[in-house]
Amino acid sequence: xxxxxxxxxxxxxxxxxxxxxxxxxxxxxxxxxxxxxxxxxxxxxxxxxxxxxxxxxxxxxxxxxxxxxxxxxxxxxxxxxxxxxxxxxxxxxxxxxxxxxxxxxxxxxxxxxxxxxxxxxxxxxxxxxxxxxxxxxxxxxxxxxxxxxxxxxxxxxxxxxxxxxxxxxxxxxxxxxxxxxxxxxxxxxxxxxxxxxxxxxxxxxxxxxxxxxxxxxxxxxxxxxxxxxxxxxxxxxxxxxxxxxxxxxxxxxxxxxxxxxxxxxxxxxxxxxxxxxxxxxxxxxxxxxxxxxxxxxxxxxxxxxxxxxxxxxxxxxxxxxxxxxxxxxxxxxxxxxxxxxxxxxxxxxxxxxxxxxxxxxxxxxxxxxxxxxxxxxxxxxxxxxx
Length: 386
Ligand SMILES: [Zn+2]
Description:
CATH superfamily: Metal-dependent hydrolases
Largest sheet: 5 strands, parallel
Oligomer: single chain
CATH class: Alpha Beta
Bound molecules: zinc ion
Number of domains: 1
Helix content: 25-40%
Distance between the termini: 69 Å
């Protein structure tokens, strides 16, 4: 029985390979498995196969960032009191995280209590708040109302908007039941208000493009998609296509050139940095952050170094989920030239990382200078003067 299953499975895999090979552009060659041979032992599944690297090369662990850092994409626990801020702050200091932007999309009503919690903590000035927008049931007049709320929140101390989550674009519906598109004109007053208030809008659009593609053995994110049902966007009757969302996003940026945009996760273009570069060329007030896409930066260290050099004024540091022990992986990719080292999350990437060795100038801009420039409200204490 097991043998039959194995044979059928190998046949399926072989057929899939054949189909894929036929789809390759002319001139491209796919490496062939050992001709006609089958492993003598059952092949391990992709979660079991963890070969230990025999590579011997210098290693430079970086527990603490070389310069103080602003984490633009912080998701601390809910700030129910100063003790929460103290716990987060205690873990920030050894990493050289100077300031965390609370990008939890805090509702307006929670802004004041959150800021009170920060002020009463030992880390006053080390955490700042962004506010959120209520994008539910948008209809005629909503834009003006949301813009007024944004103005009040900024007056109350919010330094930006966001993170506006991927549900905007993917799933949020308007009052009339249709999908709220990213470039819906009803929201124009909100983005204009943000420009007028000189605050950034931190926007997460879609998810990795592979989440929208067929879940087959050629999908780079097969394991993640197999693990997380809620990351599968293959059903076009429920979700727009990846490129449809990108087109809406780009029209939004084109329509609001005076608004400062921070695009989360390198816009999900970290595997195609030239595309993000074209966006930077096209939209002068567009910025982006590196949260949760380290696996793509670390697999192309030479390309990444060139890109970060060229667009050094547009890139920000962000981490996304708050796991203090994961930050040093970022420092190591950015600051060293180390070879072939482990990443922390196997379902993001089944490959290793390499150091991209950014210059001090790039590191300073990425870590804090660009953030201080576009979020003037961040306290300057703790940062070098240049
Ligand atoms: Zn986030």
